[in-house]
Design goal:
The chain is an alpha/beta fold. Helix content is about 35%, strand content about 15%. The protein is built from 15 helices and 13 strands. It has helices spanning about 15-20, 20-25, 30-40, 50-60, 95-105, 120-125, 140-150, 180, 195-200, 205-220, 285-290, 305-310, 325, 345-355, 365-380; strands at about 40-45, 65-70, 110-115, 130-135, 155-160, 165-170, 230-235, 240-245, 285, 295-300, 315, 335-340, 360-365. β4, α7 (about 140-150) and β5 (about 155-160) form a beta-alpha-beta unit. α4 (about 50-60) packs parallel to α5 and α4 (about 50-60) crosses α10 (about 205-220). The chain starts with 12 loop residues before the first helix and ends with a helix.
Length: about 375
Amino acid sequence: MISSTDTPLPLSSAEQLRYARHLSLPEIGLGGQQKLWQASVLVIGAGGLGAPALLYLAAAGVGHLGIIDPDRVELSNLQRQILYATATCGGAKVEAARDRLHALNPHLQIDIYPEAFTLANADRLIAAYDVIIEGSDQFATKYLVNDACVLAGKPYIGASIHAFSGMLAVYAAPEGPCYRCLFPEIPAPETVPSCAQAGVLGTVPGLFGVLQAHEALKLILGIGEPLIGALLKIDLLTMRFQRLRLPRDPGCPLCGESPTIRTLAEAPCVCATPANRPDDALPWLSVEASQQRPALRWVDVRTSAEFAAGHVPGAIHAPLDQIEDWAAHLGPHDDLLLYCQQGGRTVQAYQRLQGELQGRVSLLQGGYEAWLKDTGAQTSAT
């Protein structure tokens, strides 16, 4: 599917050893290895999906890789993002990823972009690569990747995971569907729990990231049956695999018979902001600032399982789905500090309480994970 030179170039002795298991496959051989070397893949998001995908793409000898991710490595990443080491915590993900991949295969060209994938850079980045792997955990980014790839005529492999299950497909390929054929409109953020909220077993994104790399290699090599027009769903608790038909929607506004979206500027406005961040105007308190207000009542809005696994000492447990009933029994002078795992659910809790308790509710910036980091820093200092 990806164009390459007609005459394979000879491999060095070291390359013949490195790729010996590829060269012995008649579906790959010398010509296929040359296709891999000449191909380029952009991985959007170097997290739970992107980390294993990058490792296998680099190991396979895909000659040109691009990695875009604005985040830094955090300790909570390491349970599933196997590209990183404990020593890289605090550093830029793309830099740690590049160093690890070069240690695995030093001959690759690896471009890094320590930034978010946005409307401003989407066209330029998509145009520079043959195949795209979408590993974002933000729905706005997923739609932006889809729209940019369809308009550029570039196939991409998209995956979504949740707890113990996930789904995978190749989108925007010739004659194939796009993501909007499956999900025409972006869901409301509060209806889709994040991995921090719902949790995820580390092997789940690991498997789906490997499958994304596998589908990318098939596209580059032009072998097998890529997941074009098909959706693979896997429940890893029961080991149930489903391959479902995913036809192109003739009424799709992007890839249908009469498209109404012809440029990214015409796409729905959600594409302009790839991440829905908590409102900066809300009454956030840092961990340090909260410690200067000892009268605050700390309120944990996470689930019972999260609260049982660990919480701020003395905190009251008021799960998000019960927060309004709990608040109805509060005293008239209680000042509250709400927290969840990272901050997202805290915004929802604040919005539910805003009417009756406005002016008496603060939100912990960064949530329980920020408190854990601050506690760990203080312990280390002593």
